[in-house]
Amino acid sequence: MQDKNKNNTAMQVPDSPRLSFALLTQNEGHLLYELDSDPEVMRYISDGKTSSMDFINNTYLPRLAKFSNPEKGWGIWKVIVKESQDFIGWVLVRPMDFFGDTPKYDDLEMGWRFMQKAWGKGYATEAAQAIKNVVEKQDDVNFISAIAEEDNIGSISIMKKLGLDYIKTDIHKDPLGDAELVFYQQRVTNN
After folding, report:
1. In total, how many domains does the chain have?
2. Strand pairing partners for 112?
3. Taking a C-beta distance cutoff of 8 angstroms, is the pair 34, 61 a contact?
4. Residue 8 maps to a domain
5. For the packed helices 123-135 and 153-161, what is the interaxial angle rounded to 10 degrees?
6. Any idea what the CATH number is for the domain that residue 167 is in?
7. How far apart are CA 176 and CA 46, in angstroms?
8. What CA–CA distances, in Å, run from 100 to 63, 70, 133?
9. Would you say residue 4 lies in a domain?
């Protein structure tokens, strides 16, 4: 795990036109549970199996704690609609292969999960772009990557809108289970 210097301040992501962002805390597992309670939301994550509060508290939040680094913007960014103050989903940022043998600290993985009420409105792309614009400016970031099931056309569409290109279809290794996924990536050129 990366050293977390307590003297540094947490990375901030400016509001986008419709959305605001804040890193999810360990006390906000109820938001993850609310989102993961919809089988359609979980369709490409766990074949529609919803997450229990026990899974959120004993697996999900401890995993989040392992890769969270507020100074670098690593973690799960809550996405809030400014007008209504509704939580509608999240955008994940962490090093690629973080739970593997050789995490890639210069290659940040982005992912997203949104409630059905937010689908089809461009929120996920708007949120991911706003967060990507900030985290990719770090000197030690050379790539932005994303992964998804091949049938997850919505997620792949967001990857393309962010400027990521298809790299390969391969097995993604994770302690929670390996899966064959598509890998998209963009080289960061503003360093």
Report:
1. 1
2. 91
3. no
4. no
5. 50
6. 3.40.630.30
7. 10
8. 13, 21, 26
9. no
Give the H/E segment covering residue 184.
Answer: strand 179-187
13 found inside a domain: no
Could you list the pLDDT tens digit for every one of the 191 residues in the chain?
A: 444 444 468 899 999 999 999 999 999 999 999 999 999 999 999 999 999 999 999 999 999 999 999 999 999 999 999 999 999 999 999 999 999 889 999 999 999 999 999 999 999 999 999 999 999 999 999 999 999 999 999 999 999 999 999 999 999 988 888 899 999 999 998 65
Torsion of CA 115, 119, 123, 124, to 10 degrees: 70
Domain that holds residue 74: 19-187
Residue 3 falls inside a structural domain: no
Q: Does the reported pTM lie above 0.90?
A: yes
